[in-house]
Specification:
The complex is a heterodimer. By secondary structure, chain A is of the alpha+beta class. Chain A has one domain (about 5-85, about 140-350): Alpha-Beta Plaits (2-Layer Sandwich), CATH 3.30.70.20. Chain A has 11 helices and 18 strands. In chain A, the strands form 8 sheets. Chain A has a 4-stranded mixed sheet. By secondary structure, chain B is α/β, with parallel strands linked by helices. Among the domains of chain B are: about 5-50, no CATH class; about 65-125, N-terminal domain of TfIIb (Single Sheet); about 230-270 and about 280-470 and about 785-805, Dimethylsulfoxide Reductase, domain 2, CATH 3.40.228.10; about 825-960, Barwin-like endoglucanases, CATH 2.40.40.20. Helix content of chain B is about 30%, strand content about 15%. Chain B contains 34 helices and 30 strands. A 6-stranded mixed sheet of chain B has the order 5-4-19-18-17-6. Chain B has a 6-stranded mixed barrel with strand order 25-29-26-28-27-30. In chain B, strands 9-8-7-15-16 form a 5-stranded parallel sheet. In chain B, helix 16 (about 445-460) links the parallel strand 15 (about 430-435) and strand 16 (about 470). In chain B, helix 14 (about 405-410) crosses helix 15 (about 415-430) and helix 18 (about 495-515) crosses helix 19 (about 520-530). Chain B is globular. The chains are: A alpha+beta, B alpha/beta. The interface between A and B is large, with 127 and 135 residues.
């Protein structure tokens, strides 16, 4: 098997699978919506010209339209038969254009109070969308409003729709760790990948005419350093490791405790980012009378994102939390707590980059 | 695709052909065309062997050097993060949290990797278009942005001359005012500011009360505002309230302790009007009406008392509730009532064991075998006849009858069963704590909200135990700075400090004779210092000297309960010496790192009134703030990665943090320490050149103009050796172990080993710092039985001060929020934003991109619909005071009747340059003018009036 076809599924009788698969688990009960992941990634990888509007790591308020706008309704991925589902390429405005500001005019222009700082898109227009435009709005009706944060990166799928969509063969999945990369020397900017990806996590670099996306910080990973978004996450919710490492937190959360679920698995790409679904305070009436029978976030909504096991997982989390409250041990809670960083959260990536 | 082809057929057909046509397709071992379906999949996808492209990314992750750093902005509750600053080609390339905090206890989560998204892009911020690179002199209208680039010498000479002119004029040095704002580092730059004002005798505004961070309810109850445990102490709690704060926005590096404590079994309850980001991870969210938290707290207190589930032992030992008050006038029974010449500050309780009244011990809280009564009425033989007395507890219980859960619901909107549940949970918890921030401080009746909260925690006995507490003002700093800030003369600092010690000795002896604790003594010295007027409370300064009396002083216009105007309270407070009235006309204003023209409430009015009267306005900053934009001179400061310094911390993250010079200051920027040196050097030189030998200080004493020599301790610590000064600071500090500059510079931080012996602020935490344990505030009180620094030397809920009596606030009460701003239907609330620390990152491009790039106002779905407002519409926010334009953000999570603008939009980001801060009249609450009552007297950072901008009344309308 050569490197080009490690796509993790059986095709015409041959199983295409990387030797190992790196994965992340995002614990949504710890996410603060602070976007330090987004910024750490931006400062690390997407600061060049042509990448201004790229946010390889985003955080969306759910329910919401997200990044790019309305991405959950755009299609892509595979249908039940394994055939590609139709989709389209999101526009630059849907991702949220990188706005420019008239600082020089305000600070040094001598115009006085007639002017003020304002954002404009590259088209010179007032923006009406951005990567976090609907932050903290959510759904429901007060007092049973609800929202939670959903951090998203490229899922480095086992069956990546982007890879198979690329007519240039520029996308490949690394055999050693399953990281999906776009070879941007090979890429010609056709953007079929952007269309095919059901998570819409690929951006178009209009200067270099290539598609670009999260690289799982492979240069860091190769040196034993955790990806920037994970290592800089002070919410301590981004677990990183190999799926097959039975002693690692990823395997324990995904396969042993089975509390980490893939996002929109119906797209059939078998994502390698998993989510511990969000608990939420129970419903209340306008005077704060608690109704424990009604979950605040509708279970059907969560099932729509994380699949049919959501209820089971939330029940387990509550039960294990209750054990702790009673002073009993809970291996699951201890796992999610992360007593010692980085050992408990990415045990294979302990190196401090400053010490390299 | 549009023609109904699946993507794969497209790939196999057109796409493949297209690729082939480009002649770049490798592969095809079989040589078969790419579009022939019969070829196995593995062989029809082009082979990728060019993995060397990966080196492009590998090569991007390279740097030349790494240095330690942090951010000298006042992010306060969340401050104190150790960063590695990566430098490439002489410029800072990026930063990343170091993640090297040692674990304190393996059973408790560690502090790594402290940081936030703002800190993670300071490397971008420091080089963006806001950065000040050269000294600038205003040549156009104020605020217009018309500048002439000038040399440092030209700027310094002109500034020095104008400063000298003001100092030697009849207005004197009191007319030169400094504002250090959030640049108060309590390290080199902070001491530089203090020493500059010391040698020039020019006042520095005491901003803490003005910004509303002074925790007035905590201060009058505990005798101090500083009182906070470490973040990891949360892990010991089994009940955590988030009540009066939004830590998911404002304590980003600490927040994991909250979510992890929850996984550890703690129940998390968020009490807030809106379903905030801090509610989403809670186990219960309690929607409370805006500005009614005191009623909720008092109802909880009522439940704990009536259900007899309060902690009797704690109440007897730690609070004033057993102390006796006279039935005739409601005042404490004092020793002076009982016998001629008796003390005014000795109080009594009725001892059930001895069956008689007894003086409460003053030097300890320990009760030994005493059993102070919490019930009953007693008759005592006083000096002037018989008096009926009862414990405060009896009066409190009676008083709380007006806050039964049923009655409270009518005020706060929380159901009785919910209130009872909260009270029972609090009383029964193993260890309960309250995450509360400086939010209630900023309400007009916030003092009562905090008093009610603390009453709940005291009744439940949930303070001063591992995991149990109440988060008041968090502060912890290296402790040598206080002394060095006020050490005079040109001798070496150690001699200067020794001289200072000698000078203070008589006061220390006096305090000891009065039985003061170390804490009380420290505060008493602070009070004495404060009377000299070197640190005017900025609201009082704005009221008396900057033309804001007609705005901040019109309280009676809004507060229907007032029987006399604010002016009358003000005059009384000044006449009785309860508050210090700033009396010098301002002529020169130095903004040394703050941003008054964003910060001052109704800043636009301040700008209109104050600025035209000034000879000169100078801003020292690294970025173009709104204050800089309106200044006569702008002096470019070094960014936080371009200088060496130490900054203050808090017990929440109990590590002293440093910044180091990772890269050289850009262009002509200079470190603040150096700028202070150069200003003083220029003043000394220009005075000499002009033949001016001396100036009269604010107390009429002639002082020579050798201000630079005094500042530098006789030339020992100058602009060229700040590192040696930092070394000195560490050497003289008693609470960072054996840290020295070289060591700490390499490591980036040092965990505190103690509160320290010399700090005015630290001591309020009243606890020992142990190497392997989280910090729990107040253990000196609960375990060592050290009295609280109040009049009664107990946590004090009964305040028999004339203003409290007049305003009906002797015991904690709920008072309705007045219609401040006019008769409008919506409450404007606020809070610190996720996206900036004050205004420092508000116009940073990434932070802008991750919200809406312009000022926004959160509106409920219902209120928006009623006004025809849709998300994204431009709206006008207005009331009787002013108006501002913002973008509507319509959020189901928002409470109807409440609109929210998060903190610190720069006025230059808003059309017309007015913001949410413009619509508040910020009326001074007369209660906060109280003084002359042992612990209720102004001292640095406390007991002066605060801002009251929360819950201003407003209306909004769509702009068509």
């Amino acid at each position: 098997m050569n490197e080009k076809n490690v796509i993790g599924r059986e095709l015409e009788g041959i199983l295409h699978k990387p030797k190992r698969q790196l994965a992340m688990v995002f614990d949504l009960n710890k996410c603060l919506g602070c976007h330090t992941c987004a910024i750490s990634c931006k400062r690390q990888w997407t600061r060049e010209e042509g990448m201004e509007q790229q946010w390889w790591a985003v955080v969306n308020t759910q329910p919401g339209l997200g990044t790019p706008k309305n991405w959950e309704s755009l299609g892509g991925g595979w249908d039940a038969k394994g055939e590609p589902r139709s989709s389209r390429i999101p526009t630059r405005d849907e991702f949220g254009d990188a706005w420019q500001f008239n600082k020089d005019e305000v600070f040094h222009g001598g115009k006085g109070k007639v002017t003020y700082l304002k954002p404009v898109t590259t088209q010179g227009e007032a923006p009406d969308w951005g990567p976090n435009w609907d932050e903290d709005e959510g759904g429901g009706e007060y007092p049973n409003s609800h929202f939670f944060y959903l951090p998203r990166i490229c899922n480095h799928c086992t069956h990546p729709a982007c890879l198979e969509a690329c007519p240039r063969g520029a996308i490949y999945k690394r055999a050693e760790d399953g990281i999906v990369l776009i070879n941007d020397k090979q890429c010609k900017g056709f953007r079929f990948c952007m269309e095919a990806c059901p998570y819409k996590r690929i951006y178009y670099n209009h200067v270099r005419d290539v598609g670009q996306k999260c690289i799982f910080c492979f240069p860091r990973v190769e040196k034993g350093v955790a990806p920037a978004c994970a290592r800089q996450c002070q919410g301590r919710l981004r677990f990183v490791g190999y799926l097959d490492d039975e002693n690692g937190p990823i395997h324990k959360l995904v396969h042993q405790w089975r509390v980490a679920l893939p996002l929109h698995q119906e797209h059939g790409t078998q994502p390698n980012v998993y989510y511990v679904p969000p608990l939420s305070p129970p419903s209340v009436d306008i005077n704060g009378r608690v109704d424990p029978s009604r979950p605040r976030i509708p279970t059907e909504y969560l099932e729509g994102l994380f699949g049919p096991r959501v209820r089971e997982v939330l029940t387990l989390l509550e039960a294990e939390k209750a054990k702790k409250n009673q002073g009993q041990p809970s291996e699951l809670m201890d796992l999610l707590i992360v007593y010692k960083w980085p050992n408990d959260i990415f045990p294979d990536f302990l190196r401090d980059p400053a010490e390299l | 695709m549009a023609m109904g082809m699946t993507r794969r057929t497209f790939l196999l057909g057109t796409g493949g052909a297209l690729v082939l046509s480009l002649g770049l397709l490798k592969c095809k071992k079989t040589g078969a065309p790419a579009d022939r379906p019969a070829v196995p999949y593995a062989e029809r996808v082009p082979d990728v062997r060019y993995r060397d492209f990966e080196d492009v990314y590998r090569n991007q992750w390279k740097w030349d050097s790494v240095a330690k750093g942090t951010h000298f902005v006042n992010c306060w509750y969340q401050r104190g993060c150790n960063w590695n600053v990566y430098v490439k080609d002489g410029l800072v390339w990026r930063e990343e949290q170091s993640g090297t905090y040692e674990q304190i206890d393996p059973k408790i989560p560690d502090y790594n990797p402290r940081g936030c998204q703002k800190g993670a892009c300071y490397s971008e911020r420091m080089y963006d278009e806001s950065r000040l690179r050269h000294p600038l002199k205003r040549v156009g209208e104020r605020g217009a942005g018309q500048w002439k680039r000038v040399s440092w010498d030209e700027a310094l000479n002109d500034i020095a001359d104008k400063t000298i002119d003001a100092m030697i004029s009849g207005d004197g040095p009191g007319s030169v005012i400094w504002d250090q704002g959030t640049a108060q580092t309590n390290g080199g730059a902070g001491v530089a500011m203090m020493r500059t004002s010391l040698v020039l005798d020019t006042p520095v505004l005491d901003v803490n009360t003005e910004i509303g961070d002074h925790r007035p309810g905590a201060a009058v109850t505990l005798g101090k505002m500083v009182f906070c445990s470490s973040s990891d102490d949360l892990f010991h709690a089994d009940l955590i309230f988030i009540w009066g704060g939004n830590p998911i926005y404002t304590q980003i590096p600490n927040a994991h302790f909250i979510t992890e404590a929850r996984y550890n079994g703690a129940k998390l309850i968020t009490i807030a009007p809106d379903y905030s980001a801090s509610a989403i991870h809670a186990d219960q969210w309690v929607p409370v009406k805006v500005a009614t938290d005191a009623a909720l707290g008092l109802a909880m207190a009522h439940v704990m008392i009536e259900e007899d589930i309060f902690n009797r032992k704690f109440v007897q030992e730690q609070t004033d509730l057993p102390l006796l008050v006279r039935s005739d006038n409601g005042r404490f029974l004092r020793e002076s009532d009982m016998k001629p010449g008796g003390a005014e500050d000795r109080f009594y309780f009725y001892d059930l064991a001895a069956k008689g009244i007894e003086l409460a011990p003053q030097k300890t809280l320990a009760l030994e075998n005493r059993d102070p009564a919490l019930a009953g009425e007693y008759e005592v033989q006083a000096a002037n006849g018989k008096l009926k007395v009862t414990p405060v507890f009896v009066r409190l219980r009676q008083h709380l009858q007006q806050y039964t859960p049923e009655k409270a619901m009518a005020i706060c909107g929380v159901a009785p069963e919910t209130i009872r549940g909260l009270a029972r949970g609090l009383a029964k918890a193993r260890a309960a704590t309250c995450i509360t921030q400086s939010n209630f401080s900023k309400f007009y009746h916030g003092i009562e909200m905090e008093r009610a909260q603390i009453l709940c925690f005291a009744l439940a006995g949930q303070m001063g135990r591992k995991g149990a507490g109440y988060m008041s003002f968090p502060y912890l700093s290296i402790d040598a700075v206080d002394g060095l800030g006020v050490a005079t003369g040109k001798q070496s600092p150690k001699l200067a400090l020794a001289a200072l010690g000698l000078k203070m000795a008589p006061e220390l002896i006096k305090a000891k004779l009065k039985g003061y604790t170390a804490e009380m003594t420290t505060f008493e010295l602070g009070r004495q210092e404060y009377r000299h007027g070197a640190f005017p409370a900025s609201l009082l300064w704005l009221y008396h000297q900057a033309g804001m009396e007609d705005t901040y002083g019109q309280t009676e216009k809004w507060d229907p309960a007032m029987k006399r105007p604010l002016d009358s309270y003000m005059k009384e407070a000044v006449a009785k010496g309860w508050q210090v009235k700033p009396s010098d006309r301002p002529r020169i204003f130095f903004e040394a790192g703050g941003n008054i023209l964003r910060r001052f409430r109704a800043f636009d009015k301040v700008a209109d009134r104050l600025l035209p009267t000034l000879d000169l306005m100078v801003t020292i900053d690294w970025r173009m703030s709104n204050t800089a934009l309106n200044s006569d001179y702008v002096l470019p400061a070094a960014a936080w990665y371009e200088k060496d310094d130490i900054t203050w911390a808090t017990p929440l993250s109990p590590f002293s943090q440093v910044i180091t010079r990772a890269a050289a200051p850009i262009a002509e920027a200079k470190p603040d320490w150096e700028i202070h040196c150069l200003i003083l050097k220029a003043i000394q030189r220009r005075a000499g050149e002009r033949g001016i030998k001396s100036f009269k200080d604010r107390h009429g004493v002639e002082r020579p103009f050798d201000v630079y020599d005094e500042f530098t301790f006789g030339g020992r610590y100058t602009e060229s050796n700040v590192a040696e000064f930092l070394d000195l600071l560490l050497e003289l500090s008693t609470n960072v172990g054996d840290a020295n500059w070289e060591k700490i510079k390499k490591k980036g931080f040092q965990r505190f080993t103690a509160l320290g012996e010399n700090s005015y602020m630290n001591i309020g935490n009243a606890t020992d710092v142990k190497e392997n344990e989280p910090i729990t505030a107040g253990l000196w009180h609960t375990e060592k039985k050290m009295p609280w620094p109040t009049l009664t030397r107990r946590m004090q809920f009964c305040i028999d001060h004339p203003f409290y009596e007049e305003l009906g606030e002797v015991l904690p009460v709920h008072k309705d929020q007045p219609n401040i701003g006019g008769d409008y239907p919506l409450y404007l609330t606020g809070g610190h934003t996720r996206w900036s620390i004050h205004s420092t990152w508000r116009d940073q491009r990434h932070m802008q991109q991750l919200n809406r790039g312009q000022p926004v106002i959160y509106i409920s779905v219902k209120d928006a619909a009623a006004r025809g407002i849709q998300d994204g519409d431009q709206v006008r926010l207005f009331n009787d005071i002013s108006s501002a334009q913002l973008m509507a953000k319509v959020a189901p999570a928002h409470r109807p009747g409440q609109v929210t603008v998060y903190h610190a939009w720069e006025p230059f980001m808003a059309k017309g340059r007015t913001t949410y801060t413009s619509v508040t009249p910020n009326p001074i609450n007369p209660l906060q003018l109280a003084g002359g009552y042992f612990h209720i007297q102004p001292r640095p950072a406390e007991f002066a009036p605060g801002s009251t901008d929360r819950a201003t009344r407003v209306q909004i309308e769509k702009i068509h």
